[in-house]
Amino acid sequence: MMLALGNIFRCQRLIQNPVRFLVRNCHKESIPVSWGTPKIGWTKLNFDGSCKGRKGNGSIGGVIRNHKAEFLLGYAESIGRTTSTIAELSALRRGLELVLENGWTDVWLEGDDKTLIDIIVCRRQVKCAELQRHVGHINLIIPELNNCIVTHIYREGNRAADKLAQIGHQLEKPRIWWHDPPNEVGRIVDEDAEGKIILRRR
User: Fold this and answer.
1) Which of 23, 95, 123, 176 would suit a FRET pair with 151, their CA atoms being 20 to 30 Å apart?
2) What PANTHER family does UniProt report for this protein, alphabetically (predicted)?
């Protein structure tokens, strides 16, 4: 009889612990995240790189919008075997090339990889030759712009670029969308324009 009671008490503790864990998590503060509109006359490039699978198959994506939150251009591409940081740099590099090609000169660059933002903004040194090559190219493009700011945003505020990067995995050749994004991206662009807030758990 005592053994049975002991088992009951152990079971109660096992049941109570997950409940207390859930309650603690519910009380943690969430961070409200939303996409921000650029100033009048500015364009905003959100970019993202994706790397998944054992072979590290990479893809890139990005979206460029104006101060009215209107979709101007989107791009996506599969880039083969790579690392996540190189995928992020490739996404930014390709986006900047498209910015220059279209004559946009006041540009807000935004991505969700904090390490990459630190490399660009803080001029952090990188040892990998391929990383150096991408960073060098990016550092040559940025001075061509009249004005440029670079910021980090959580993934919840970078959903349109993230979705395009995911689409990139499915593509056999690079793709650019002008003024009319894929349906799944268009829905996100509309939500961003409306100021939709997504809560990020700490």
Assistant:
1) 176
2) OS05G0353850 PROTEIN (PTHR47723), REVERSE TRANSCRIPTASE-LIKE PROTEIN (PTHR47723:SF23)
